[in-house]
Amino acid sequence: MGMDERKFRILQAIIDDYILTAVPVGSRTISKKYDMGLSSATIRNEMSDLEELGYLDQPHVSAGRVPSAKAYRLYVDQLLQAGRLRTDSDMALRAHFLGRTRQMEEVMDHAAQVLSSLTNYTAVVLPPTGTQPRIRNIQLVSVSDNAALAVIVTDAGVVRDAVIRVSEELDQDALYSVSRTLTGELAGKTLSEAVERMPEIIRGMQSQAELLEGFGDVMNTQQQANHPHVAIGGTSNMLNYPEYADMEKARSFLSLMETRDRLADIIGQKGEMSFTVRIGPETGVPEMADCSIVTATYTTGNGQQGTIGVIGPTRMQYSRVLEVMNTMGRQLSELFGTGEDDVLKLE
Amino acid sequence: MGMDERKFRILQAIIDDYILTAVPVGSRTISKKYDMGLSSATIRNEMSDLEELGYLDQPHVSAGRVPSAKAYRLYVDQLLQAGRLRTDSDMALRAHFLGRTRQMEEVMDHAAQVLSSLTNYTAVVLPPTGTQPRIRNIQLVSVSDNAALAVIVTDAGVVRDAVIRVSEELDQDALYSVSRTLTGELAGKTLSEAVERMPEIIRGMQSQAELLEGFGDVMNTQQQANHPHVAIGGTSNMLNYPEYADMEKARSFLSLMETRDRLADIIGQKGEMSFTVRIGPETGVPEMADCSIVTATYTTGNGQQGTIGVIGPTRMQYSRVLEVMNTMGRQLSELFGTGEDDVLKLE
DNA sequence: TGTTAGCACTCACTCGCAGCGAGTGCTAAC
DNA sequence: GTTAGCACTCGCTGCGAGTGAGTGCTAACA
Q1: What sign results for the dihedral spanned by CA atoms A180, A183, A184, A186?
Q2: Which residue range is the domain that position A44 belongs to?
């Protein structure tokens, strides 16, 4: 007994119906709603086969069938290779982006919101990472008599800032020249390389030892801490779905959404594909046993890769989600892109 | 019939019990658990009076009594003036903060988390605002051949950054000198003042008109957008409380938490007091009809005020919350404080 | 006059049970 | 190979009795 064309069509119908209704679907429903030209009895036989093949589960004897993770897998794989992902919601997305400021984190936040409102699931956007960001410019600015703000600009366009406190009073000109020296010495280096280089620089500028040491500390914590911004949208969407009618489930899901670090790990796992779909157990996250995660990557001008993800129930509208994500991925790639001033210039 | 000492003690007992159990409390419970030396019958009479006075509600005839918003109000007012707010959880809070990086937003996020985990409610932290932040330093850094990153440092220690795109190729030295000029011209000004000043500056530096105009745009959007970071912690805590067993309520609460702008408005309303407690209807937010909001302010070195808030069910543990917030407020004031290097130096 | 014991009454909540109906698997006929 | 028919399963709904916490009232007591 194998998987023939007809079985596949029936399976597809079951998945479609289940995605829509979240109710176990019976043989009669299929034979009536999706005119297959087959009676319910025949469908029943096929369904029985499909269950044996592992594509369907039966919550209990007298209920309909529910697609298994394996079924979704098949469905999605087929979708990914065949569909070639349309991008018709392009306009909506684009419109959403017009007239917006371009601050990195705001764009990410906004993207997460758009993504979640367009899909009605939960969306996550991670900033570009990958190759270690390289320092472009360092600037020390006094904020009070004995405190300076260190601003580090990296090629990812990300700005990191931290306060340095010193005992003696700060001299504006000195800060300027130190900034200049630091930029000169460290530009092009990664944060960790810069940290290694610091002792030497301090040796060469004993007069500013305290300030420089403070700066070294800052770099060190920056490098270690490395908490990238995690943008999330539509966490409350999840509560719309009967899958999360159970409070306990909802709670554990939400609290997972709150631990950004872990979330970033989960979403950030990159495959070699531009799209990844992890279904149910494939997520490897107990709290997400009946969730699916769809991720896609976007690419910035300097080749760094960011990730966008949508989290929904396993019976999510994969085709819709993939479509929207495809579009969003492109948008972000353009926005952070190679310097073609297409999208931005529209503003 | 007035509010005498005994009535007050009984009311207090009812509130305490209800805060603990979230179950309507009956006369017997009070007479047994809190030894008042009174029989349940007497308590019943008093409770009947208290209900008439508006301090108690009765969900239905054969249930116990539940404190009304008016009762909490009384309770809290008494707490605020009498208690003088202890700060014994000081140590725990302090320990939490040690060894952390000092990036503004991270501190806020962290504060929100600590606040929520210490109270088991939802916590919100808003950055300092009030007096318009003033520009301290402006730096343009090239990020690609025809894009520059504008970094604006304000006296609030906040850094704002945005990308400027230009058509011609950027010259590093030119950027440097433009940065210098801009800093010279605009330092000490507020964003809006700076925006007004821009046309004049552009006239004086025709050679860099495009760049400067781009910068002007950035300032403009920055000034308008003005989306301060809103740190939230423990949203999922809310689901622990039977008040939110109803999915629909939970959903609307969570989705309110997601609309940061609105949330910031709600939390950010400043009274003249350092502590504000809004109970139930007093919040003015329909979604929070049975929530209370406690806010406190912290103050930065330059006199700007930030806000921290805790949101919980009306029957929240006010004394605990006020205590924790008192401590947290001080911590933050110190941290962003007048330059005394107490807390930070510990690191 | 304030306090208390006693009692009737209310009413949400739980539990068990019958009935319903969607859905299945099997069998026999087409 | 397909389909009609039928017996069977079993979760879900609704209903009615029983339970118990809690009240208000009255009458007795200090």
Answers
A1: positive
A2: 5-67
